Amino acid sequence: MEKIHHNYVNVRGLKLHYAEIGTGPVVVFLHGFPEIWYSWRHQMIAVAEAGFRAIAPDFRGYGLSELPTEPEKATFKDLVDDLHDMLDSVGIDKIFLVGKDFGARVLYHFALVYPERVSAVAALGMPFILTGPQTFPRDLLPKGFYMLRWQEPGRAEKDFGQFDIKTVIKNIYILFSGSELPAAKDDNEEIMDLVDPSTPLPTWFTEDDLANYASLYENSGFQLALQVPYRAWLEDYGVEDLKIKVPCLLVMGEKDYALKFGALEQYITSGMVKEYVPDLETIFLPEGSHFVQEQFPDKVNQLIITFLNKLK
User: Catalytic site residue 38?
Assistant: First the structure.
C-alpha cells in the first residue's frame, strides 16, 4: 500500500483526488458505493506488478475529492466529463477501464460518449443496462428496496444521521454482502434497521479496512453519494448509439444480490446483454458477493490481468 501514490488535479472547477501506481498502459479503476479508491487496493498493486499503470480516482464529492457547491445537481455525465478532463490534464490519451457497481455504469457511459479514449472495459457487479424512467424495473422490486428509499430526498440523510459514519459504512457492507435485495418490510422500517448491531463484518473485510473507508467518508460525507448514483439513476446516456464497441469482461458473483434486480440474471445469462455489448465475456464467481474484488482479490486480479494482456 505504501507504494501507491496520491495526487490531485483541478478538473472543471474541482480539486479531484486519484491514487496511482505502476508504469505502462493505463488502467483506470472506477469505484462504486459505499466504496472509494481504496476498494481497488488489491487490483492496483496486481496490475502494476503485471506491467500496467493503475489509476483509481475518487469521484467528485467522494473521499478526498472536493465536493461541488451544489451536490444535489450532480449527474452521471458530470462524472464522465470529470474523467475525460482528468485524463487530458495528466496527458493520458487511451485507457483500459475497470468499474464496479455504479462505477461500471460510469464506465459504460464513458465508453459511449468518448469511445476513442477506450481500449477495453471490465465491469464487476453490473452489466450494461438501459437507462431512463421507462427502464427502471420499479414494478419488479420490493416497495422498501433500498434504492427506492434513498431516492427520496432527506430519507437516507435522516436514517444515516442516527449513526456515526463508520457504523453506516459497516451496515451497508453487511447488507450488500448478502444474496437478497436489501429492502425494508414496511414504511416504519428504515434500511439501517435491517442490520443487527451484533452482526460481524464479512471475513474478508477487516476493521482496518472499515477504518480506512470511514476516514474517507468522514472527509466527504454522503451528499454526493446519495445524488449519484441514487437520485440521478434515471438519467439517460445522452447518445443514440447504445453499443459498447470495445471488448468487455463482466464478472459477477453468483450470490450478488444485484442479480435479483428486476430480471438482471436472465438478461445476462440469456445473452440479451450482447445486443448492446457484442464482444462480451461473462464470468460468474461461485460464492461471490457484490464485493468480489475484495472478497476474492486473487481470482479477480487474475481475470482482469488475463483480459488486459490479451489486448495490450
Answer: no
